[in-house]
Amino acid sequence: MQARQWKTALLDWASNFQPILRALVLVVSCLTLVLLARHAAADGEVIRTCPVSPALREVQAKSNRDDSVCVAREPRAALTASPVCNYFDAPNEAPRVRVLCCVDLIRGTRQRGSQFRCFPTLLLVGVQKAGTTAVFGHLLAHPEFRPPSVGGKSVKVLKEVHFFDLTAGHQPNKSAYLEYFPDIGGAPQSRDGRRPVPFVSADCSPSYSSSYDALKRLRDVLPHARVVLLLRDPVQRAWSELNMRLRQLESQLEWRGLLSQHAAALAMCLDTSDPVQIGACVPSEVRSNPRWQNFLRKKVLPWIMNGSLSEILSDQQELQTEWLYAGSDSSSGVVLDLGSGLASMREEMQMITGCIRAGDTLLRRCFLFQRRNPAQLTRGGYVLRGMYLPQVQNLFELFAREQVLVLFDSELRSNPNESMSRIYAHAGMHPGHAYVDPAALSQQSLQRRLHAVLPEFGPISGWQLDSETYDVRNKTARDPKDNRFTAFARERREVEDELCAFYSAFDAELEQLLQLGPLPWRLDRPRTCSKS
Ligand SMILES: Nc1ncnc2c1ncn2[C@@H]1O[C@H](COP(=O)(O)OS(=O)(=O)O)[C@@H](OP(=O)(O)O)[C@H]1O
């Protein structure tokens, strides 16, 4: 065949196949477009949201699926809008409504699968030292409850997430908050986007209630939260906090003593070992102290990384200060002894009284101590945290009244079953779940129970149920020879009388605001406050 004939034959063949080629190009383009669209959705768009509507609620109630939730698929970066929340009425129980706000976080096109996490339904916002740990202990025993946690391989249960109080000045990162709550990414999902969510979670950070800003951030992120506030006689609460601070001081001093005792060996280890070897080099007495890991992670490794180790080691004064506070339980509220704690209490009472006298009739404004006078909190907050009136005013301003459940610690102690049932019902959990005998609420038994219910979780760290080990008042009586306490015995009694008088001035208004009848501590005052 001639070259020209070849060419004509080829053109004939191509023209016959042109429609097929066109179709092929079309199919490939469509496929590319679909893939591109999926990629874009995964990386930047909200795929579907399911707004709360009465109709949806009705459908869910009828469908008998109180534990399912309509899911929003949102990529991590786009998680700025409020999460999608749904309400569920449990049809076969006494009325209980569970509010679930969940997000399906798409990990991106390269990583497979997604994380499905729900915001906590229950926020136990305070007050500090009113029995919040006991409530958390009870919650752990409820089959519908899963605690927040941190950590990769060794998961640690968290009672207090401290997300809203420690993010001051920043836009709260909702994705970061969600990371604390269980990922149930593997749960099956039906075609309509629902999937079973058999549990609720809680954030029991008792410091939230004492900061207006924290509560506001909380409300902005979780407008549907079910909030619980525990109240306790503010005088007893103040002592409990001082006991805690003194306990922390005692353990800090013990740590400092340990480090001073082994200073030479430690300095040598820090100076010569590479970071991996340090653990094995330091004396075992130091290594076995619970503060060691914290010290290593938060202090030593950063010193090594930023090259300041030799400078720190050469300055004994600096080293002592660093060592004293390394791994401290709390950087705020450091007391030097019982006397300085009592002085702090008096100072705070004066500050608040002055604030009220200065014409700041709206006590709440006076009380915005985190914004107005951050230094106050570093001294303790023994009295401020017991100022319940402004805290309750803030809560009632930010949340609907039915979202807030106020309970007294005395109720929790005398009738834990009834108190916990109310908390469960408030959070939409089964209210009839048998409560745990408070006598069994010890750290060890909680740990055992946690492992039995949730074997995947590791230790519960950083909290204890009572301060029997250290009680300013009892110690004074029990140990008259201990100068650290006897020296302040008279002053302690005086401060107690002052606290009683100080707080009594707010009782009537608090009673009126709460509408829960007489405050339990008001009835108790003749016994607890000598001059009442
Ligand atoms: N079951 C029960 N009911 C009520 N109160 C209880 C219960 N168990 C412990 N406690 C007492 O609670 C005090 C500690 O409170 P918190 O757990 O809220 O402390 S913290 O804010 O988490 O540090 C702490 O008070 P003090 O002993 O006076 O310090 C505990 O004794």
Outline the structure in words:
- With 532 residues, the chain is an alpha/beta fold.
- Among the domains are: 49-225 and 399-470, no CATH class; 245-325, no CATH class.
- Helices cover 52% and strands 10% of the residues.
- The chain has 24 helices and twelve strands.
- The chain has helices at residues 3-44, 54-62, 132-140, 174-178, 212-221, 234-261, 263-272, 275-281, 284-287, 291-305, 309-314, 316-325, 338-357, 363-367, 369-372, 374-378, 388-398, 409-414, 416-427, 443-453, 472-478, 483-486, 489-514, 520-528; strands at residues 68-70, 72-75, 84-89, 97-106, 114-118, 122-126, 149-150, 156-157, 194-196, 202-203, 226-231, 404-408.
- Strands 2, 3, 4 and 5 form a four-stranded mixed sheet that branches. The protein has a four-stranded parallel sheet with strand order 10-6-11-12, with helices on both faces. Strands 1-9 form a two-stranded antiparallel sheet.
- Strand 4 (97-106) and strand 5 form a beta hairpin.
- Helix 6 crosses helix 12 and helix 17 runs parallel beside helix 23 (489-514).
- The protein starts with a helix and ends with a helix.
- Mean pLDDT is 71; it is low at 36-84, 88-95, 186-192, 326-333, 369-379 and 466-470.
Number of helices in the DSSP assignment: 24
The average pLDDT score comes to 71
**How far do the termini sit from each other?**
122 Å
Assembly level? single chain
Q: Looking at the structure, what is the overall shape?
A: extended
Unreliable runs: 36-84, 88-95, 186-192, 326-333, 369-379, 466-470
Radius of gyration: 30 Å
* Estimated share of beta-strand residues: 5-15%
Share of helix among residues? 40-55%
Organism: Porphyridium purpureum (Red alga)
GO molecular function: sulfotransferase activity
Keywords: Transferase
Active site: 129 (for sulfotransferase activity)
